[in-house]
Each structure stands twice: as structure tokens, then as C-alpha cells.
Amino acid sequence: MPVKRxxxxxxxxxxxxxxxxxxxxxxxxxxxLLQPNFDAYDVVDALPDYLPTVxxxxxxxxxxxxxxxxxxxxxxxxxxxxxxxxxxxxxxxVLKDNVCLAGVPMMNGASTLEGxxxxxxxxxxxxxLDAGATIVGKSVCEYFCFSGGSHTSAxxxxxxxxxxxxxxxxxxxGSAALLAAGExxxxxxxxxxxxxxxxxxxxxxxxxxxxxxxxxxxxxxxxELTLDHTGxxxxxxxxxxLMLEVLAGPDGLDPRQYAQQASRPYTDLMKGxxxxxxxxxxxxxxxxxxxxxxxxxxxxxxxxxxxxxGAEVTxxxxxxxxxGPAIWLPIAAEGATQQMMKDNxxxxxxxxxxxxxxxxxxxxxxxxxxxxxxxxxITMVLGEYFIxxxxxxxxxxxxxxxxxLRQAYDDVLARHDLLLMxxxxxxxxxxxxxxxxxxDVIARAFEVLPNTCQFDATGHPAMSLPCGxxxxxxxxxxLVGRHWDEGTIYRAALAFEQAKDWRDL
Length: 505
Prior knowledge:
alpha/beta, Amidase signature (AS) enzymes, eleven-stranded mixed sheet, 15 helices, 13 strands
């Protein structure tokens, strides 16, 4: 149907918002001159949207309750069988609920998005099905993915299977919990500040944030183009490498894939062992105010284990690591406020697949903003303050500084193969109870960020794998590699995993 034409008053109001003041006569002339442009919009409106074909049969599924969802980690259960044969045949895979799966509800943890049903499959969903996987549902994530804890989803908290009542980490909370509980074989996570690695650390599973752009983000709800990552979460390193082989490579639809790097045989590359690898233990990664001495000890013991396996392990300083969270913050706060919220997820100025149905549905948040999570609201207030009062200057400066931060790590990686530090400075914390003070809600969401967010800004690949326990709760070891060198991360991770059961470290 034709697009709605503005009234003269609407034209004048829009002009004023742009600092332009039109008289009634000028507005009438504009209305007349704009008619051919509105006609062009009618042509675009009448054309069918150009979207990828959905091929695999599926049903909408259902929301499990009670014992079937004891950890609060399932959003939807369904069964979508992939192509017979393939390297993932028989594997049960759950998608984080920010990943589009046509015909299956998607909430992204948010009450304002509840009821949305995508009409496309994300590229990664198609690749999993093409490789023979069975997609068994969608996992709960944090409210629009804005929390490192597991307590902000509108569907309720996600409990850590290692200890009920404790955080599973976020924002890929349900994915990590379902893996730790043994209810799925593989999971998709997303990572803009650590949201694959943080829940992997809390739940004792393996989570890789690939190099920025290696895995297509197409069909996953964006937060901020330069921070958006999606990737594999598994219980073992071998499964993680296998999954990345399926997920990686350009799809021609994602502007994040500027380097057009192809998938590599990670399951072969991981077999080289650690003998001769040079690993840099980053001193600053152990020195945060919230750093737990027992967590630090477990991670240093893991470094010693790698040394005993033949790696050359050296401790050194990367001073810029300490300011990395400050550099990341304006990109995340201002960028997400603008793209994910004000621009309804997709925004402007990039080529690729726009999920127009998601743009339309997500736009409803503006009338329901009070429902947003406290973590998202406080971030938006911060971001909008700096957008309005500093015109995006600090976003721009932070993007410049992110290049300097990347160089600081690259300088070390020119002489070493990997960086090593704790994934998180702490182990899982108790979930805030209903009605908890906002201070506690915010603290539990953001206290876990200091070692992970830097590598979203710089794009380096980074993995969390379990390296011991403190009082029965997992500790995460983070390995960071050169851009596009996930294979070396897998080498060290597999050797470490095979040396000894992580629970006994």
C-alpha cells in the first residue's frame, strides 16, 4: 500500500528537529516538490523484500516449563533436522535467542521484543543445518544482551548448573548453562564485551570469540557493528574447532567480514601441541580490584602446566590493557544506544542483509522503554548524554584509541604466539534476588568485564576454557591469539585439556 504522506504540520515539525524553520508557504512548496520522491518510496514498498530462502522444515516449538527447564535456560524447544551426512550430523545445537530462526519465536531476552517471529534464518543457522546438525531450540539470553550476569532476561534468571542460585554468566547465559547441564552438544553465543567467554568461564565450558568478521553475523540482532561477534560454545576443544570449521568464512552479506577470510581446518591445526609455542602471561590481567587470589592462582597453575607441556611461558606487562575497558566503553555505550536502540537494531551506512521485520518489530521499544532492563537503561542514559552533549566525539576518539590498543597487543604477539590471563577475575556469584537494589543488579552485570571487553574492541580471537575450581565453581583461562590465528589457540587449548581433567587442577 502507498506510504503515508506527511501533513504540512508534520513537515514543519520534522524540519524544526533538523534546525530548519519553514513558513507555511515554504512547507506547501516542499510538499509539492516531494511528491515524486514519495512516489519512489511507493515503488520500493510494493517490491518484495529480497531475503535468503528458508529451506529446512520446522515448527514454532514451545516454551518448556518446570523440570524441563529447571535452570531457566531454554526459551524455545523445537527440532529442525539438518541435511543427512555432514560433519555435525547427530549433534544437538542450541542457538542464542538473538539469532534469527525463521518461524521460531525470538525474544532476545526482552519483553519489548516478545512475540517477534523472524522470517529468515541467520547464516550460521543455515550453515549448521547444511552440516547435518539438529537445531533443538533457542537459549535464554540477557535483556538485549546487556549483562555479564544471568539475571536480566525478561523470562527470568538463568541458574548455573554447577550451583543453583548462582550466575551462569552472560549474555549467552542459556547457551553456557545448557552445555554445562549436558542438555545440548553445541551452542551459539554472541560476544560484544565478553558474552561468549564470561558464561563459558562461570559454567566451565569452552567458548571462543573468533576474530572479528571471521564468522558472519548476518541474521543475528546487531548491537554495534564494530563490536559484534558470534561464535561456538562447546564442552570440549575438539568440538569447538569442529563447529568453527562449519561457521567460519564469508557469506557476502555481512559488512563485518571486510577481510573475507575463509574457514580453515581447525581440527587439524589444533593437533600441533604446545612445544615451542611462546605464551605471554599478561600481568595486568591479574591486577583488577575485584581479582580473586584463588582465581589468579588457578590461572597461574594453568600457565605452569603449559610450560611443563613444552611451551615457553613468560610474564610481561601490557600497560594499555588496564585502560582497555575505558576505551571500549564509549564504543559500547554510544554505539549500542545509537545502532541497537535509536536506529532499531540495524541503522544505516552499511551494505548487507537488513532483517526488515526485526527493524519494524523492535521499533516498538520506544513506547515501552520503562520495561527495559536496568543494565540497558543506565547504559542508554550514559550513551545518549555523550551523543547529545559531545556530538559523538568520544565514540570517535575511542575508535581511534582502539587501533592503538590493538597495536599494543600486536606488538607482544609479534614476539609471542598467545596471550594468557584469567577470563574473569572472579568465579560465579549469587544471583541477585527479586527486588534487589539497582546497585547490586548493575554490579553483578558489569563486574566481570575487565579482561574480556578489550578484545571485542580490537577484534583479536580469544577463548575461555576451564582450568580448575574454587569452592566447586569453575575458573576460566583465557587465551588470546593473533588475528585469524584461531588454530594456535586451539593447539594450546587442546594440549591443556588433554593433559588433565580441569576439575582436578
